[in-house]
Amino acid sequence: MAKRLLTLPELGLLIYMLRDKPEVSRLLALLPVAEVEGIADGGMGSLRFVNSNPYRRLGQAVATLRYPDADGVPVLATLYLDTDGVLYELDSWKTDGSPLQRIPAF
């Protein structure tokens, strides 16, 4: 998939998810220029952060949020770091498996 910058709704979601986490100023500073690629997930909104390290591995979850989609179906969003503590992936999962309609304003 093509690389791109975060959309404003994606950026707002990530800032909201990270707002109360300790020592996140480094991650927040990178968000406006972070490049991402969509993940083939049936349109649920998952993203992988672009990085030049070909040996990256999934690390720990740093934040999780549950919110309703426009149709009322719950969405579970989890933000992961890689094993080096760098933004790795935003995993979005809509509980009924349908495509995400919109990210609400946070």
TrEMBL record:
Listed Pfam families: DUF6984
Domain DUF6984: start-end pairs: 3-104
Superkingdom of the source species: Bacteria
Protein name: DUF6984 domain-containing protein
